[in-house]
Records
---
Amino acid sequence: MAASLVDMRTRLRLGALLMALSLLPALLSGCASLERHHQALLVLGDLSAGSGESRLKRRSEPPRREGVHYVRQGRAYQADLYHPREPRRGSLLLVHGFTEQGRRDPRLVALAMTLGRVGFTVMVPELEGLRDYSISTREVEAIVDAIRHATGSAPEAPSRTAVAAVSFAVGPALIAAMDEAVANRVSFVVAVGGYYDMTDMLRYVTTGEDRGGAGRAAPPPQREARWAVLLSQLHWLEDEQDRTLLETIARRRLADPEAPVAGEARRLGASGRALYELVTNRDPGRVEALIARLPPSLVRELEALDPSRRALDSLQARLVLIHGPQDRVIPVSHSRRLRDALPPGQARLFEAGALQHVAVSPGWRDGWGLWRALVHVLALGEGE
């Protein structure tokens, strides 16, 4: 244990030294750049601290949170607006991932507060599909409506906004940012731990094979990921008994990976069994055939939420990809492929060892890549 503590201290000191050395160009280029580099350090520290004390919290005022309601073409929504004390980095739409607490998830609130402290006006819409694990193209529509609200509903609203999303929400957010109705209103997109190819994502989650890895081995997937995917697609099954049985199976296995589920599995109908067989499959070569056996409505939705099937030249925004190289939910190869699918210079990828999928590791361990990403996001927020 003593040796591991020494190693940790050494890594932290080395990381701090590298960050300090990187400030030298900023010293030569001007005070604004130096301040941005320093603020990125404060943001990193605040993200690592969570709800605890940090230098950023001590040095800045928290943003004011306001609950708002808005309607678009008969569709009613709720959102939280975080108003910074010093609005200097424009608007940012923050899209939450799978969480039953929605926009009030404590981790999401903490992130919105952090972004507000450094000058972003943050809007966090409530997305029911991500709240109840029923993700669909409905979320794309809701994000498009949120972009419209953020950019044009109030006289003081900016004409453009940034969009940030995490994990499985990256696909809907990216597709929304390409929608012709709002594409010119999105200045940049931040995608943290997101997917690019839906079929390959399902293959990795269920079998562990990462076909987009270009020969580089991916870490083994988290066992829980397959059950989260199952929950996210249950709403497409017409048979109520199948939905109930599969939800029971998924939640039981999330609580205990070894829990018995054979009894429920035997009672499944044809559609429910097709989805169950995809989620429990271990053979990478069977994935396409198992997807083809799913209900047609589910297949259409999977294809509609797949960025690799889209014409990415409709994305006008700049793209910031942040991904942990040891991500065990969605491999980093997805962000690499997404970067390479766009014109040179439109997307930047930061491989951040400090990320455990979308959570920041304690103690800033391997925080170099994440710090560089934060510097870039802060610069984009200032219009650079």
Note: Residues 1-14 have pLDDT under 50 and may be disordered.
---
Amino acid sequence: MAIVQNAAPRRATITQGHEADRRRQRLDRGNARWRSFASAHPRQGSGRRRELLEHQEPRVSVLSCADSRVPPELVFDQGLGDMFTTRSAGQVLDSSVLGTLVYGVDEFDTVLLVVLGHDSCGAVKAAIRAHRTGVLPPGHVGYLVGQVLDVVETVPEQETEKAFLDACVRANARSVAEQIREEPGLREAVEAGTMKVEPARYDLRRSRVEWLDDASRSGRGGEGVPAPRARGR
């Protein structure tokens, strides 16, 4: 009996893991369309809107920077109801952001949670400036910059300022992802294998999303990817 009782949760974990991989592949296909100027804008018609009137089940959650150049639904070419999106400058976590992420997991059974940073991030630039000068901006902006500064101060100096900025962007996305993995209310899903948390970086020039855990494991930083060619209008 013990074997039978343990088999169902194991099968559920495997199924959820496969679903997370499948969802990430869908995001990859959407980003490929976006960067080749071939966005399909799927699941946005009248039928989809009627379908979502009473019910939604976005199995993917995205925490992204609030930067106007990085709208997740466009970057991944997804439709209505596909992603549960939360945005804050520098992907900074506070109680309301964490509460939103936990709500997505509890309410919609999130299988994939993406932390999406991007190059040239203004919040990271401000944290680097505070790191150099020792001065935080006043008020609420100072709170936000201080959260990113904690990460910036752990990043080794690089050969150029541009390289240092990019290293900080990557470190910040990975740090936020790790905080999410350890957060009560989310850690249980991660440890059970029912949800994956994936840090990523969006390249503004190439319009490309790079999965940072993949780059870390393979030793690649994602450089050398050609910029998309604009199609004739």
Note: Residues 4 and 10 are 10 Å apart (CA to CA).
---
Amino acid sequence: MDYVQVALTAPEVAPLLTGLRQEYDARYGQGAGESVLDVDAGEFDGPTGAFVVLLDEGTTVAGGGIRRIDDTVVEIKRMWTNPDYRRQGYASRLLRELAGLARQLGYQRVRLETGYAQPEALALYRRLGFVQIDSYGPYENATAFELSLDDVTTKPRH
């Protein structure tokens, strides 16, 4: 399986967005999934952004995107792994793919935010070398992370 670059509006992304909305509603309360709609789909388009999905015989396994914050920083958003495929390394692989795309586009750092009810994500980002930073987005109680693409690899630290 390889990642395929697609538009956020591609049919392969629909299961990802639906799953993400359901997950946010389950973890943070009814209506929390509406935050999936807080960024215009065009922000994930080239030449400043990208969105990728991993497919297994037509099933959306994982995906996520990057969008420009400024000339040197890109944000990872809409990252999700199908529950049937979790705990198999797809999220780590996705982060490495997105970091590679960010490098190709000339960015120096990637940022992302996650919530308190996603302990798996918090652990993953720390394990992959992301450093916690001050929150920068609109979400209350979000935990923000940053990864320098210049001097930090995206390989897991042991």
Note: The first strand starts at residue 3 and ends at 5.
